[in-house]
């Protein structure tokens, strides 16, 4: 066996097992300190070798999701709950990261606050056509992750319509960081009215930009923010920027 060829396969298997354990923590909303099992139990459960188990634990420790206590009475426990954020009709879970995922969301909202105002003043016909195409993608989305990606793409188009390259570049960097730590996206229960509201509001933003109707534009932005932001983390909550 060639050592260099065997290593990626073991790493890939470890990543999959780590992802399964992370999903279990998220789906069951396991609290900090919850017991996940002993090393031998997890190896039997997932059918993996000690080497793959070691790599799996390293991945989860690096993400600050687990603690490993050796000896009798020890085992693997949940170290931290993945940050959860609610955005309108969506619940999103993030891997722990630096900066905190809520800081990334806050940065995104404040950048979009200024960029959307600039887009209102500077958007060209081509920009408005691109916004309408992005809206069509949002309406065609069939699952939560696809819809969230379409929302990010829409706001990327609006950022480009501001024609401020430095701020657009900053917006792209923040979006890339959000994507890098996003682990799961689902629709909230009874999400359909919230989803319809979100689509209508985004449509109204584009329509107001297209005809340069400032009153309608401000109204649409205020409605966009009314129920946009929420978090399950009681120690770190953020308010979205408020429009005048």
TrEMBL record:
It comes from the Bacteria. SMART domains: FCD, HTH_GNTR. It holds the Pfam family FCD. One of its GO terms (molecular function) is DNA-binding transcription factor activity. InterPro entries: GntR_C (IPR011711), TF_FadR/GntR_C (IPR008920), Tscrpt_reg_HTH_GntR (IPR000524), WH-like_DNA-bd_sf (IPR036388), WH_DNA-bd_sf (IPR036390). Residues 11-81 form the HTH gntR-type domain. Keywords: DNA-binding, Transcription, Transcription regulation. PANTHER family: GNTR FAMILY REGULATORY PROTEIN (PTHR43537:SF44), TRANSCRIPTIONAL REGULATOR, GNTR FAMILY (PTHR43537). This is Bacterial regulatory s, gntR family protein. It comes from Mycolicibacterium hassiacum (strain DSM 44199 / CIP 105218 / JCM 12690 / 3849).
């Amino acid at each position: 066996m060639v050592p260099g060829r065997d290593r990626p396969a073991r790493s890939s298997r470890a990543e999959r097992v780590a992802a399964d354990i992370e999903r279990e923590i998220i789906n069951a909303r396991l609290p900090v300190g919850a017991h996940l099992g002993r090393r031998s139990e997890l190896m039997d459960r997932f059918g993996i070798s000690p080497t793959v188990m070691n790599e799996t634990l390293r991945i989860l420790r690096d993400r600050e999701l687990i603690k490993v206590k050796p000896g009798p009475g020890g085992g693997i426990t949940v170290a931290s709950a993945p940050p959860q954020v609610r955005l309108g009709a969506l619940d999103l879970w993030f891997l722990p990261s630096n900066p905190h995922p809520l800081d990334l969301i806050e940065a995104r909202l404040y950048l979009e606050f200024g960029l959307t105002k600039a887009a209102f003043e500077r958007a060209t016909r081509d920009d408005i056509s691109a916004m309408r195409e992005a809206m069509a993608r949002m309406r065609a989305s069939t699952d939560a992750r696809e819809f969230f990606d379409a929302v990010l793409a829409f706001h990327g188009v609006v950022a480009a319509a501001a024609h401020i390259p430095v701020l657009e570049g900053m917006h792209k960097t923040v979006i890339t960081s959000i994507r890098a730590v996003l682990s799961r996206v689902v629709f909230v229960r009874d999400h359909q009215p919230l989803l319809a509201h979100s689509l209508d509001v985004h449509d109204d933003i584009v329509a107001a930009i297209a005809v340069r109707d400032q009153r309608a534009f401000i109204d649409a932005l205020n409605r966009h923010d009314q129920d946009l932001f929420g978090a399950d983390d009681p120690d770190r909550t953020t308010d979205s920027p408020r429009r005048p």
